[in-house]
Amino acid sequence: MNQKLPNSLKISPLIPLNIYEKLSCFVFYNLDQQLYIASSNTQNVSLLYDFLPHTKHTIPLIEISQEEFTYHIQSAQAQDTLTSLINQIQQDEDLAIQKLLDFILLQAIKQHSSDIHLENTHTDAQIRIRIDSLMQELCTIPSKHFMLLSSSLKLECSLDIHETRKPQDGRFSRIFDDISYDFRFSSLPTAKGESLVIRILCKENQSFDLPSLGFPNNLHFDFPYGLVFVTGPTGSGKSTTLYAILESLKGVEKKIITLEDPIEYDLDLLTQVAINEKYGFGFPQALRSILRQDPDIIMVGEIRDTESLSLAIQASLTGHLVLSTLHTNDALSTIERLLDMQAKPFLIASILHLIIAQRLARRLCPICKIPNLTPPLDLIPSKFHTSTFYQAQGCPQCKFKGYSGRILLYETLHLSKQHRALISSQSTKEEFLELLKQEGFMSLFEYGIWQAALGATSLEEVFRLTHEI
After folding, report:
1. Total-model pTM
2. Cis amide prior to 366 (ω within 30 degrees)
3. 290 near 275, Cβ under 8 Å?
4. What's the whole-number mean pLDDT along residues 322-346?
5. At a CB cut-off of 8 Å and minimum separation 6, what does 88 contact?
6. Residue 307 and residue 291 in contact, taking contact as beta carbons nearer than 8 Å
7. Whole-number Å distance between alpha carbons of 426 and 432
8. Distances in Å between the alpha carbon of 323 and those of 141, 285, 349, 370?
9. C-alpha torsion sign, points 377, 381, 384, 390
10. Would you say 203 and 396 are in contact if contact means Cβ atoms under 8 Å apart?
11. Which of 126, 301, 333, 355 has the lowest CB atom count within 10 Å?
12. What is the distance in angstroms between the CA of the first residue and the CA of the last residue of the chain?
């Protein structure tokens, strides 16, 4: 970002935005409420003064790029649209609320966000969006309009609009620019009212191809039976990886059943089952039922307790391939977690085939990234000490964040005879790590450092995601 331009910028309403747009310059306030002119075409600055109220002092001028000008003008236009919609609510409540909801959804989609968070306070309602795993503010609306938005969303999802004391979940669809979007809605009672979260799902923009996600071409899952786990924290892309694995395995000759809570994407050639704890149809109950459906492959959204793990092990022992997820930090921690959940070591050793541990790291913007001249060499493996690392800067292309999109960081543990022997004998984690080191195993942290050395992400991002490992 232009170093002379303030981080917090408010375009002055002294002149209409359409005039600013024609002149390629605008007047703005800094944090101290001082006026400045920003222009991508300095020849038009003299014309701008014709529209300003009489002033004795020349307003300081800052030259910016056309891309930067466009970014700030579009942000101001979006804010004007929001203000107009809020004012319309007084005149035609139902129509304006629908327009406001569509505006929020479309703005979130344009900024490639994954979730929309609406949270009420005593004075106003804050609307934030999650972009590349981090939250940022989209806008605020008067608190009195929050309930109208909540009711509108619940109607979209065929939920009870009067229920604000219990959590509710639903989904609805919209078409924007001829692209169909699914939205998953969740409401949660809070001390100040409700917290509403909307997950944005678009199958047209979502890839379920393993190489396009960042996995190697030689990664295979054609095991006749057994267990495969994908691990990582919430938001690390585990479900997407499971869908991609199923895409690589599915075919008319295979019966594949999934247990999901909730179903995110509707895929062909899969029998997808939604879990409903409210009606006593949880993972254990559903898993027992689908074993009578003669499946070849079973995908369980998450192994949550000892009972569901026991059933998954039973299914894999009886000739089924079971895919699932666990919330563990790395591949070796998955084995520890299974033992903590009372799985017998010899059973784990006999049926566990593969563990994938993964994270999603923010990708450095290729337009504005700059070399990191002082990388912390004491924190990275010596083989990377001569590499050139990069850091974020910010430009209009990446909305001044320094990052654009995400890349996959992962480690894969294929269990060999030696690994199975260590599990059966309940060897320590240190013994396991020593064997992996001899085999040239690349950990999640090392893979992240390698991606940083390639310039795909920053060291700061790798440390942020792998500091607990």
Report:
1. 0.84
2. no
3. no
4. 94
5. 95, 96, 99
6. no
7. 10
8. 43, 17, 16, 41
9. negative
10. no
11. 126
12. 34
